[in-house]
From TrEMBL:
Major location (coarse): cytoplasm
Record-given protein name: Response regulator
Origin species: Paenibacillus lycopersici
A GO-annotated cellular component: cytoplasm
Highest classification ranks of the organism: Bacteria, Bacillati, Bacillota, Bacilli, Bacillales
InterPro entries: CheY-like_superfamily, Homeodomain-like_sf, HptR, HTH_AraC, HTH_AraC-typ_CS, Sig_transdc_resp-reg_receiver
Amino acid sequence: MPNLLIVDDEETTRNSLSELVPWSEWGIAEVRTAENGVTALKLAQHYRPAILLADIRMPKMNGIELAQRIRDLYPACEIVFLSGFADKAYLKSAIQLQAVDYLDKPVEMEQLKQVFLGIVKRLASAVGTKGDIAFLRQEIVVDLICKKGDLTDWIARASPDMLQLRGGGRYRVYALTLHWALAAAEEERTVWKHSMLNRFNQADAFPGTRMIAGFVGDNCLVVAAEATIQRGGEEKGAAEGEAEGEELAWLMLTALLDVCPAGACSISAGCSDMTPRTDAFAGLYKTALTAARRHFYHGDSRVYMPIAATAGYSFDFDKSGYAGFKRMLREAAAQDVIDYVRRLSADIARSADPDTNKIRNLFFNHLRILFEATMQWDEANAGDENETTYMWREIDTRATLEELTRFLLAHVEMTLQKPAANGVDKIDEIKRYIDHHYASNQISIQSIADHTHLSQTYLCALFKKATGRTVNDYITALRIEKAKALLLDRGKKLYEITADVGLIDTNYFSTLFKKYTGMTPSDYRTKSFHEA
């Protein structure tokens, strides 16, 4: 049964549609609501609506724009528009989007029923179309990899069009790991991932290859493929089979790089061994993923073939070394600290420890100690839990050991070698940027960091050290002060003031306003008029 997303900025309409309509009787499995297009788009990235019922005229993002964005994510999504206005321009856009219907407010129950019964019937008959095939193939991949399912069971249940893999062959798994740039927004990633999946589910996507593909987790596209084991009636040798596997991995890697815009994502491909077993895909995936993760030491945009396990290659860091690093920051010259980081990186590279999460944690701890010693930054009293998150995120988005090393060295140089006056100049630059952009809902730590050419981590630490408050707190306090002035205008509606200070959700704005002033926006407006 399909699900439904209702989007309307009028609370009465939204609640009436969600609570008073017998959706389950009409074949709708689940209904969710959103008060505006921006909120709806965020929800849709996880909810994956089969049907969108949206008001056309809404603040910030109208229904047409929302529908266009939803269609980018889910091309098969059925769209129904609501409107209290007869607007030819909107009707034309609705036609171009191939909307199912266009309902006038107030909505008549019988008309709504007929529209949705028709949609549900059409969706039920559409199972097996391209969009459904891509989704179901992903479900098969997840079952084979994560639940250790057996391909034989799926062959018995699925049609040849749905599942190209057949029994009696030899199989190989490819893991294509995605390393997103920090600037790649979540909604952009979702669109690109859908494009990648659609590319791999095109008919004869890689000529002569029988395969299925799907994402396992957020950042790994997994392909289960049937290897060609014969040539001219004779079985291929191991070397020839491996060369074929590597060639296909390169084709897959190139296809993904073509989909993703330059600079948004780096990608590495790992390839497993072959096996005739139909219940061994989980093990093949582990082998392929381990191979792909060698990019940490050798670079991305490459194909990595499986190698024999090597016993005992582990980088062991004595935790007393953290105390030594802290002492070095207090007592040693900047160049000594730089040399230490370079030696540490070289030792890690020689070990080629496959536990890259352990290595990332080691770099995180060094960065944390650096800020504690030089910026008076304290994780326990940072004032904003997001500030630690920024540090983790920036560590995590460095795809290779070389990138992590450059990142840590850059912060050592900034904190130990830059003159204090430069820090004052940067604080002024940060404040000017916020003063000019607080009214935009796109302002973020990332946008400020990009403008000032600082990392998010250093930006937060520097600002907190200089001002005693977090960047987010400074932005919010400024917005509240601007909102106070706007509330003195009786003609200004609350949702307009919310938008004018760079926020989207009126309820969130009211909660924030009360937190900072001790009263609701309405109470503040009333009090101000009485005092005047």
